[in-house]
């Protein structure tokens, strides 16, 4: 299609950009890392959101080209920030499409980005959407191979799919990202569910990040439930690298 050709040309022309949103340690309030979120600075269209072009890219292996660019840029950015004196403990998280993770070349793509940037593998986290992880067996094997590189694996949008808590023990993952829909909820049943997810994740040695935190009350609840990290508009919106603060806006 036309959008697909425009995107292909746009990638070659350097039109993709990354915005970064901090992920904060709930206990200390310090920034623990940044999630990289892609946008397309398409001439004549302004900044195009990923929801408006990733689904098109996912119809072909074009999404792997996007993924390779994001991996290269995000790892290089964290290396630049480290050279500028930001802490060596900081991580960067990259969203990978399930289609990309299901390709045999994904391990090479990640290894290449690490080699080119010089970033230590444990400082890169790969976010894969929950629905994808449970649907495709190849993904399970790919996650193992990726984890063998030393990178971290996060299950994104947890709570929107059908992963049972029981399945967590079989997946080669390090982190659960609890979806915003669960973070927003105020009904006692859903609050109890979030607590159970945190408990189960910890029992399986996973850390838990809550996404989409917008209200101080949500932060207090998540802290009480033992959630390890938080991310959301309450702290910062995704912003270009040049605007991303290097310290935690969250009061401990
Ligand atoms: O930043 P924003 O809220 O517009 O992101 C919307 C969606 O796009 C999210 O679900 C996010 O996971 C996805 N997304 C953001 N960046 C990337 C990326 O680099 N690759 C892929 N595959 N998805 C991304
Ligand atoms: O699916 P994924 O978690 O990768 O997508 C993250 C998306 O959520 C990004 O597009 C980001 O802009 C958006 N986002 C981040 N924090 C908040 C928040 O606090 N509230 C809302 N509504 N969206 C958020
Ligand atoms: Mn994500
Ligand atoms: Na998410």
UniProtKB/TrEMBL annotation:
Residue ranges of domain EAL in the record: 1-252
Protein name as catalogued: Diguanylate cyclase
Provenance organism: Cellulomonas carbonis T26
């Amino acid at each position: 299609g036309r959008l697909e050709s425009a995107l292909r040309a746009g990638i070659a022309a350097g039109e993709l950009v990354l915005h970064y949103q901090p992920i904060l340690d709930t206990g200390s309030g310090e920034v623990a890392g940044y999630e990289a979120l892609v946008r397309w600075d398409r001439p004549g269209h302004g900044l195009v959101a990923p929801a408006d072009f990733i689904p098109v890219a996912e119809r072909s292996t074009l999404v792997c080209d996007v993924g390779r660019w994001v991996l290269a840029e995000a790892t290089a950015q964290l290396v630049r920030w480290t050279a500028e004196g930001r802490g060596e403990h900081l991580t960067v998280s990259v969203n990978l499409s399930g289609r990309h993770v299901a390709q045999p070349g994904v391990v090479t793509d990640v290894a290449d980005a690490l080699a080119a940037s010089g970033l230590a593998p444990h400082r890169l986290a790969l976010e894969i959407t929950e629905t994808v992880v449970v649907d495709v067996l190849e993904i399970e094997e790919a996650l193992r191979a990726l984890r063998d590189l030393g990178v971290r694996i996060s299950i994104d949008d947890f709570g929107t799919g059908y992963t049972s808590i029981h399945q967590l023990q079989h997946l080669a993952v390090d982190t659960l990202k609890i979806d915003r829909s669960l973070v927003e909820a105020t009904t006692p049943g859903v609050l109890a569910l979030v607590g159970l997810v945190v408990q189960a994740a910890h029992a399986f040695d996973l850390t838990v990040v809550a996404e989409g935190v917008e209200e101080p009350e949500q932060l207090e609840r998540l802290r009480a439930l033992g959630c390890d990290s938080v991310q959301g508009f309450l702290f910062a919106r995704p912003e270009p690298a040049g605007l991303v603060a290097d310290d935690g806006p969250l009061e401990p």
